[in-house]
Amino acid sequence: MAWKWPSAAKSGASEEWTGFIDQGVTLEGTLTVKGTFRIDGNVKGNIISEQTVILGEGAKVEGQIEGNRVVISGRFDGVIFAKGRVEIEAKGVVTGEVHSPCMVIDPGGIFDAAATCWDLRRRLQR
Hints:
10% of the residues lie in helices and 60% in strands. The longest helix is centred in the last third of the chain and has 8 residues, at 118-125. It is mainly β. It has one domain (19-125). Strands 1, 2, 3, 4, 5, 6, 7, 8, 9, 10 and 11 form an eleven-stranded mixed sheet that branches.
């Protein structure tokens, strides 16, 4: 069963929640989902989503994330590939690498990583 994104009705977007990993849950391996997925537990491995990956404040993730939009409020160490944007919220901590056309870091967010802006590379090559 999929849940609708709370603001979907207002904005016309149709992001569906695929599920979540709650606090106290640990996962090792590869997680592949079609919709938006939230993590509040511990993950070591790869997370692949066609939509949004959300790391809540209690999340501790080590590995690789691929998604359209990646929102981080917890801790992440590894490589992020985002087609849309990466958002590091006030309590978020990111170490490793980020590859995305857009990145937003809220005041208080920690970014200790290398960043590659895809769109910028394309524009500079013209």
